[in-house]
Amino acid sequence: MPRYVGAIDQGTTSTRFILFDRDGEIAGVDQREHAQIHPHAGWVEHDAEEIWERTQEVIAGALRNAGAHARDVAAIGITNQRETTVVWDRESGRPIHHAIVWQDTRTDRLVRELAADEGVERLRESVGLPLSTYFSGPKVAWVLEHVDGSRERAQSGELAFGTIDSWLLWNLAGGPGAATHATDVSNASRTLLMDLETLAWYEPSLELMGIPRALLPEIRSSSEIYCEAAASAVAGAPVASMIGDQQAALFGQTCFGAGEAKNTYGTGSFLLVNIGEELVRADGLLTSVAYRLADQRAKYVLEGSIAVTGAAVQWLRDGLGVISSAAEVEALARSVEDNGGVYFVPAFSGLFAPRWRDDARGVIVGLTAYAGAGHIARATLEAAAWQTRDVVDAVRAARIELSELRVDGGMTANELLMQIQADVLGMPVVRPAVSETTALGAAFAAALAVGFFADEHELRERWREDRRWSPQLDAAEREREHARWNEAVSRSLGWVTQTPS
Prior knowledge:
By secondary structure, the chain is an alpha/beta fold. It has helices at about 50-65, 110-115, 125, 135-145, 150-155, 165-170, 185-190, 205-210, 245-250, 310-320, 330-335, 375-395, 415-425, 435-450, 455-460, 475-490, and strands at about 5-10, 15-20, 25-35, 45, 75-80, 85-90, 100, 160-165, 180-185, 220, 225-230, 240-245, 260-265, 270-275, 285-290, 300-305, 345, 365, 405-410, 430, 465-470. The chain is globular.
């Protein structure tokens, strides 16, 4: 009998494969990095073929580390960096261009042209997203415009487009001839090309961006058997889930009910709130599909993306040199009793949710001769917490109340930050025992598809709490500090002005 479910966790800088046992514990893992390619300023690319090679290597490595074989794996799931875009030749299986990464901004002029007089919100009512360089649709349009002959080949059905989940599924299924060209609703909802209500490709988006329907994958649920792996060390195992990384973390945190939320702290942060089966739109937040299990109705999320949280700590290390490692920031911040009146708004390249101000830039305010490195370190941690509070306030404005926030990502090791987060939110913050929530979510979804676990109730039983932080800050003090934070943010706005042409 199979002992494990596996998850391919394909991220921006590396690929991992993790095996989980029936208790939801990690039994084996392997991880490999891939190259970051920067042809021009603002351009970020990956070699999709290298990613597939790394994927095969980590699958074999994790099996070896666990002393396991393909027959021990009940199913595998895929979770992935979401908006990164690949276009490949269906006959050869070779990409016609490097993958264009979600961070890439080469489509900024194209996005302005697509917005035209109707503005960046012109598609939002149907697709849940503003026109932005962030999402996949404009990246596909750029490839078709800049790779010779690609538009004609796309129209004739010779080419295939996919986000990384589609690319890995295609190759796992055997590549050319296997005809497994699919994506799931969570990834499709991040392309600007899918109607959130019908869960089908949205024709007005395709027409606006000049993307032929023949190029597109089939949209399927997040948890079902797509194919049997024909390649890699898990050949014969069913590929049974695909889910975008942030939605996978929500699923891995077992936030299955409306109003349940998680925040992932990395370079930036992503706060997702399950809003159930009915679409909700909120000012300053994005609406996407959370997941769909088999033929059940889809669940939706509100998402708040925060540009800079962990990156601010990196700046303290690399830019100011006040710490030599990121882990030192907690001790430095604990060396003072409070922020000493110092507030840091790390708007290095603008503010994301819920303000969406690209004219903002970073500011440190409230400096006096009394302020020292410890106060700046504490203000840096508080900035991560206050930005999260801003997103939670936008959720609350949509009449969605949260009872607690589940957290994951590297910064959750910082226990001072977690206490500050609970204080500024006025609600508990909960860290799970298994920190690899993204891979766990993909594994859980695959496990449901093959009956390895029976239902969502059994998944909840596998999730375990590591630590919980409860608010300790007086409510009146919380609101006074919040007012000061908002005043600091106001100082960051309008710093960048348009130069007349």
